[in-house]
Amino acid sequence: MNERAKGNGCLYLVGLLGVGMVLAGLGLDRLGSWVDEHPPPERGFSPPGPTPQPPAAVAEPTPAPSAEPPPAPEPLEPAALSPLVWAAEVVSHPSLLAGTPCAVVVRVERRLDGPHPAEAEVACGAESVFRGTVTSQALVEARRARGYVYRADVEAAGVAEHVGSTLRFTSAERRAAVTAPGRTIELYVEDASAMRDHGPFELASERQAAPGWSAVRRRALVRQLSGPVPLAVQRARDGDGECTLSARPSMSGGELSCRIVLRCGGAVIYGAGESGYNRCVIADGALASAEDTGFSGEDTDPSLSLDLAARSLVVRDASIDGEWSATFRLDVEDGCDGPLTLTGATVTPDAEAVNVARDAQGQWRVERAGEAAIVLTGSVDCASGDAMVRQLDAFLDLERGVGEDSFVGYWRNVGGGAEPLLLRVR
């Protein structure tokens, strides 16, 4: 090979190297661009990402409604009703005599919003006069020394055999009326119920204190009359009927602290309607006296002067025929001491017979539904006529009825409910 050929080979070699370098440069430039577009991951700590969540639950498809309705829930047991009983007697009745002992019973349901009178019943003697559902009601509660008494204003519609009858009962006015197709029955009713010592309905104010004295009941024997006295007082003097004085703490308390009623036969001589409120004097925890100086024309009831220590009562008033005056001697009613026999029944739909007897030695025996039981203890408060009889498994709380020959109250089982009673002296 000559020198010129060698020179040309060198030139070719340099040319090829240049082309290779150009091509390499182009490759490195493209590689740099790719690296810029795809940077490597950074090394070191990276914060954790969100906690992986489980896949969402897929809702089950709602089954198509069944053609058959679901079974009805089990019926609830009816709420227990607590009875209240008022002593009453017949004023007018198509077949019963005036003065026949009666009981008015209102059964109260305890609800979350308070007590609600739910049922009402009236029994006179052995006859059920009314039974129905209360449609309108108001209830007032007052504390007493050993329990609670109540005043009620109730309207009721008859049920079962009494459908079509209605009851209108206002104890503040001492009256009740049962109206049925073709007849109306009128009753005289005590203003306060027989005392309950087995739990209040929590209507009484917590600030209301018990009055500190108990009700008083006395037979009033006519001693002297002058002027045109009411006919019922004249009859009582002649032996046709008796007069009875009763005094109770007022339901509302206040200045007029008591309510006094004098009845002769079926007539109210003092304390008719909503009258009879007085400023009674209390001494040593007992009623001592009361004085009302106004006549009926001034304050709706006659003048009255009562002195229990002297056993004296004087009632005076004026009518279109002139002024009159009646003087009475007060005495404890019969049946307080000595033997006593009562017979009657519970004032309930089944009206179970109840007999109560106290012998000369003071031992009591109670018989109900044909089962005799010896009573452990028993007593009668001679001042008020109230009685309490205790059995091994029951209590009998009794109060004199409107008349001298009856008692009303409760038969209360230990640990159980109470049933109202209407008993008559036999």
3D architecture notes:
With 426 residues, the chain is mostly beta strands. The protein folds into two domains: 81-209 and 335-425, no CATH class; 216-331, no CATH class. Helix content is 11%, strand content 47%. The chain has helices spanning 3-37, 231-237, 296-299, and strands spanning 81-92, 101-111, 114-124, 127-144, 147-158, 166-170, 175-180, 183-189, 216-226, 243-249, 258-264, 267-270, 277-278, 281-283, 286-292, 303-307, 312-319, 322-331, 340-346, 353-358, 364-368, 371-374, 377-380, 387-390, 394-400, 406-413, 418-425. Strands 9, 10, 11, 12, 13, 14, 15, 16, 17 and 18 form a ten-stranded antiparallel beta sheet that branches. It has a nine-stranded antiparallel beta sheet with strand order 22-21-20-19-27-26-25-24-23, with no helix packed on it. Strands 1-2-3-4-5-6-7-8 form an eight-stranded antiparallel beta barrel. A hairpin with an 8-residue loop joins strand 1 and strand 2 (101-111).
